Amino acid sequence: MLRKLAGLVATLSATSFVIFGAAYAAPGDPVTFLAGGKENLTPAYLAQIRAQYHLDDPFLVQYLRWLGDAVTGDLGRSLQYNDQVADLLAARLPTTLGLVAYAAVLFTVFGVALGVLAAVRGGRTDSAVVAGTTFATSVPPFVVATALISLFGVQLGWFPVAGGGSLWHLTLPAVTLALGALAIVSRVTRQAMVEQRGLDHVTVARASGLAERSIVLRHVFRGALGPIVTMCGLVTAGMLAGTVTIETAFGLSGIGSLLVGAINTHDFPVTQAVLLLMVAAYIAVTTVVELVQPVIDPRARRRA
After folding, report:
1. Residue 143 domain-assigned?
2. Which part of the chain is the ABC transmembrane type-1 domain (predicted)?
3. Please, are residues 86 and 73 in contact by the beta-carbon 8 Å criterion?
4. I need a surface site. Which of 85, 155, 192, 209 has the fewest CB within 10 A?
5. How many helices (H) and strands (E) are present in the chain, helices listed first?
6. What would the mean pLDDT of 247-260 be, rounded to a whole number?
């Protein structure tokens, strides 16, 4: 545990350095936004603003100050909204987390079900699932979003097409976000199930006269659960960054749309905070998956 904790701290520290350095090297001077876009700014006034916000300090000093404040929960003040970045994240994070959770339920339930169906039935069912998942992964999310909005939002009027944070509002965005992940999870489930069906203990169980349903649930699916859980966790962790396109397309006020607005307006404190949050969430989810893996699969515990 100490080794894992040290690795997490080192990864977050390196990531924070890269994020701060990228924003520091990005084109555009934050002094212009801090000055309120005024014209004919005197060099003395610009120097005063730089000194006030410590922008004239060396890069390493600025980074250490920002990192120290971030550790204590102070993520700075937004240049665009003139509000604390932590408050902006707290207001928008529930929408993004709700969207990711909704999409995770969809792709886990339907992805695993399709993978199991393809592995057990085989034949035309397997071919149909493989063809459908291949098509799903080849369609970009913004195309899926446009199609769903046009069909279910505009023509049929079944779902709202913009705004809101209720479950009904999040249905179309969650389906859009889950579609590509569903294809990945179904493929992994199918492959893991096929591999497990060919193992000796499954052959022995079948030869002993156990019902096929019991063999699939107790031996095949249970043995394939490790790779399935791992992939579901990895896909869920990466979804936080994938909400950028979805939230923009559906007009949701989440951290994805906040990041887009911050990048467009050179709002460096918000950009840095959102990126750091996405990386921290990814690391946290993957760590949980890694800790759960030995509980699901005793073979992983023996390897550890």
Report:
1. yes
2. 93-289
3. yes
4. 209
5. 14, 0
6. 85
